Amino acid sequence: MFTKRLTVAALAASVAMMPAARVGADAGDFIAGALIGGVVGHAVTKNNQKRKQTRTYRSGIPSTHEGRQIQSSLNYFGFNAGRVDGQLGRQSRNAVASYQAYMGYPATGQLSAFEQDLLITSYNRAQAGGYQTTQLIAANPEGPRGLLKTYRAELAGQQAPQAPVVVAAPQPQVVAPQPQAVVAAPTVTAAVQEPQGTALPNFFEGGAPEASLASHCNTVSLLTSTNGYTTAASMTDPTAALNEQFCLARTYAIANSEELISKVGGLTPQQIATQCEGFGPVVQPYVEGLALKPRDVVSQEVSGFVLTSGTSAQQLAGTAKICMGVGYRTDNMTVALGSALILYSLGETVYGELMGHHLALGFGTQKNVNAAGPWYEAALAATDAGADAVFVPGQPERTDILRKASLQLAGKPPAQAGVMPVFSVTE
User: By the 8 A CB rule, do 39 and 271 touch?
Assistant: First the structure.
């Protein structure tokens, strides 16, 4: 036990002695396993356990509910993932690659957030569709897997080619029961009126469910794949433009998080995700104050938390970038927003863009367009001052799009740049 404590203390000391200049460096350089909640200690314990248990025959792949959903969905649509055990092994990855190839996506064997949501949502919809699903499958030459393209087209606002078959099939049968309807009308009317006010179920007693950013971005992605992205010149709807840029930022945050997770030793991605979820309650008070307090007040409060966290800036930045992506991937807006706030308070003010998006569009916090403005301004000011782009670096006019859309959304005139003042000088 003394040896273990000494090892953890030595690791912590080595982190504390790192040069402060590395704080602003790529979070991929931060110490492996340095996550909030004692991850370093967990990694050391796990290594000690490995030394004691030299022989094991259990699968090293964790079984998850999410994994079972993916396998069930793949099998339903004809992509053989094997036994549904929640362990995404080689056979499951091959099935994922087959699904991606069929849908026209890169066959990487690793599902993106959009690809996974489309797969599982389509499976759930097919299961709930009953007779209509059976008709769609019968009318589609590609069988059950053809439903994937049908549902994707409908999400994009396109008419599914099988729709006329489904609608036309039951129409001839509607005429037959009409003579009986006259006799049964009083009974039916009484049955409908009787339960009013008493038997109607209420599924939202605790209030309306929080909007899902993942589902929202699925729809946005399908629309942009059809219509293309909004440019600064073509912008007519600032909300639509911000939606596109928000979802792009979310995708980049998830990708960056997954890259960093791959560099963390001693922990599985699921274990890291679990620790990030536990991070949510810690930052929840600051997230709740976003729509109610000025930007500088919120930033100052988060800075106070950072100073008392007992964690180095480098560790905290790396942790925040990991947990931000986990939050967006799992639709946990508190974790995503709290992580973005920590990065902002550490001086990476380009992340102010995310707080602007959340406030402007109402995800994870109360919608407040006026409160969104200062966060956008801080992010744009950092970019104008030469800060590196953290989202979509290959989009040259992204700053112009964000500036124009955020100003239009707030009802402000567009900023005029490059106007030379004229002074009258008398000699």
Answer: no
Q: What are phi and psi of 129, to 5 degrees?
A: -80, -20
**pLDDT tens digits along 386-403:** 988 888 877 778 899 999
Tokens linked to 304:
């106070």
Query: Could you tell me which of 254, 273, 256, 214 has the C-alpha nearest to residue 67?
Result: 273
∠ CA 211-213-216 to the nearest 5 degrees? 90
Does the predicted model carry a pTM greater than 0.70?
no
- Whether the CB-CB separation of 330 and 277 falls below 8 Å is answered with yes
> Could you give the CA distance from residue 283 to residue 392 in angstroms, rounded to a whole number?
27
* DSSP secondary structure, 299-321, as one string: HHHHHHHHHTS---HHHHHHHHH
* Contact yes or no for 161/151 (Cβ under 8 A): no
CA distances from 236 to 18, 133, 242, 248 (A): 49, 38, 12, 19
Tokens of 177: 């029961």
- Spatial contact of 333 and 210, defined as CB atoms under 8 Å apart: yes
DSSP string covering 192-224: HHTTTTTT---S-TT-SPPPPHHHHHHHHHHHH
Phi-psi map region of 232: left, alpha, beta (phi>0 left; psi -120 to 50 alpha): alpha
| Alpha-helical segments (H) within 53-130 | 65-76, 90-103, 113-128
Query: pLDDT tens digits, residue range 292-313?
Result: 999 999 999 999 988 887 878 8
Residue 106 C-beta-side C-alpha neighbours within 13 Å: 5
Give the C-alpha separation, 299 to 385, whole Å.
Answer: 20
* Tokens 């097919």, located at residue: 126
Q: What is the pLDDT of residues 182-228, one digit of tens each?
A: 333 333 333 334 444 445 554 445 444 567 888 888 888 888 777 78
- Give the number of other CB atoms < 10 A from CB of residue 241: 23
Is the Cβ–Cβ distance between 281 and 36 less than 8 Å? Answer: no
